[in-house]
């Protein structure tokens, strides 16, 4: 038995739904027993929130928002069905849409919306998508029926983020599935309280629904189908060389998710984790790829660090003073003050002397956190026992995660050495007692470079990338490029070094390509694609790119770049030059 879940991006339109049905047909043909959970069509949940909020203001423009949602679903039906099937599905969807319309009209008249009413509105996203997709599965020869999950999952009445009553829920799920002989298409995200009111399960709710089902049914595996190849070693939008991981433990997945990885929301894993059920992350757009398996334990693998994750924006509070040492409960008072004001902490680190404490919070809580701590330590500040609390913004938090790091010497050294060599200053360092992650804080404008530097050191250590920027491709410069081109295979195979020509400029034009300019065609590309140049523009662009292992090669015969050398070296960019003036 498998439980599959497809998110909004996987069912964003008719074409993607067809692809999903093809995947499910293969499971059906292979005699795999499965249930499937769907989110709302891509973007619909956000549209429903906007619709409800607009109506609650007494704004008649809610009517056009409703018509847009209606049109999206009718257009999907038009593209998926024909003949009798088309009429059947359209009638089912029309009934749901009319019910939604009546609820929204009531919100408009009341000019008010409660969390309870919003949950009811949001439930229609999954009800509409599952009704459409189940009918599409039936047309494809996959016998299926829809079950709205509010009939299965029982929660408390904490609307918007309801807590599951697992005793009642598991009983309902087992009773329902015992009598089923078709594939069950289950709405994600929604549940109901003991009074029958619709509730929702909060962020990652559809993943959570799949995990709840999987645990109740003792599934062999839960598959989360998304739009990436699995959990990556780093965010591929920031680290081009990121690679998918074959396997991670539950703890590693939770740690990566906490620090910004978006593939799966940590609490959704708990029901599966408690039952030891494997979770596999799969790509709807690359179904043949095995993806990443999340499990309790795994065989030892070559790399002890599994992945790098980051929180792009944080604020850091630096608290210093003898009062932290002399007043034993000062630290606990600080944490109590933050907790009482509902300020969540992202990281904590304290000097061994006890004289200083650093706390990381989300930027929107930075000033509030500072004011809370100042108020709590007012007496100590008056008596001169505490320094002024310093709030630093525009920082980022990086975490390197791996279950086996605790038994592997040198991991931290590799991380900090690679950052230091590339001129990236570390603002704070933290390591959990479980040694599952090593975290550090850097300036936000250095985040991308820091992630690439650490990733290259941890995961691509066999192959070093050197980024070249060359000025003056005349007799000497072009000869150097030709020589590097001839030696590329030797450099890659024998020295494990990849040279990339990222930027090149002559006296008239300059050209940049982050993917690398081919050493065989740089002359033609510079001539055809180059833009107007100047020494300061070329150097500023190199500094702006801020790539790791950058080398500026000055093959000019004049002093146009010489005056910029100090600036270049200040940004930890190496210089190579045959320039006699230099």
Question: Which terms would index this structure?
Answer:
582 residues; Carbamate kinase; VC0802-like; Rossmann fold; eight-stranded mixed sheet; six-stranded antiparallel sheet; 20 helices; 41% helix; 21% strand
Describe the structure in your own words.
By secondary structure, the protein is an alpha/beta fold. The protein folds into 3 domains: 2-227, Carbamate kinase; 307-459, VC0802-like, CATH 3.30.2130; 464-576, NAD(P)-binding Rossmann-like Domain (Rossmann fold). Helices cover 41% and strands 21% of the residues. It has 20 helices and 23 strands. The chain has an 8-stranded mixed β-sheet, sandwiched between helices. A 6-stranded antiparallel β-sheet has the order 13-14-12-15-17-16. Helix 2 (44-56) packs antiparallel against helix 5 (115-139) and helix 6 (166-178) packs across helix 7. The radius of gyration is 29 Å and the shape is globular. The model has no long low-confidence stretch (mean pLDDT 92).
CATH class of the largest domain, anyone?
Alpha Beta
Tell me the count of domains.
3
Across the major sheet, the strand order is 3-5-2-1-8-10-11-9
What's the gyration radius in Å?
Answer: 29 Å
- The dominant shape is globular
How many H/I helical runs?
A: 20
Q: What is the assigned CATH homologous superfamily of the largest domain?
A: Acetylglutamate kinase-like
Low-pLDDT stretches are: none
Question: What is the structural class?
Answer: alpha/beta
Distance between the termini: 71 Å
Strand residue percentage:
15-25%
Secondary structure tally: strands: 23
Mean pLDDT: 92
CATH topology of the largest domain: Carbamate kinase
Task: Label the CATH architecture of the largest domain.
Answer: 3-Layer(aba) Sandwich
Query: Percent helix among the residues?
Result: 40-55%
Question: How many strands, which pairing sense, and closed or not: the largest β-sheet?
Answer: 8 strands, mixed
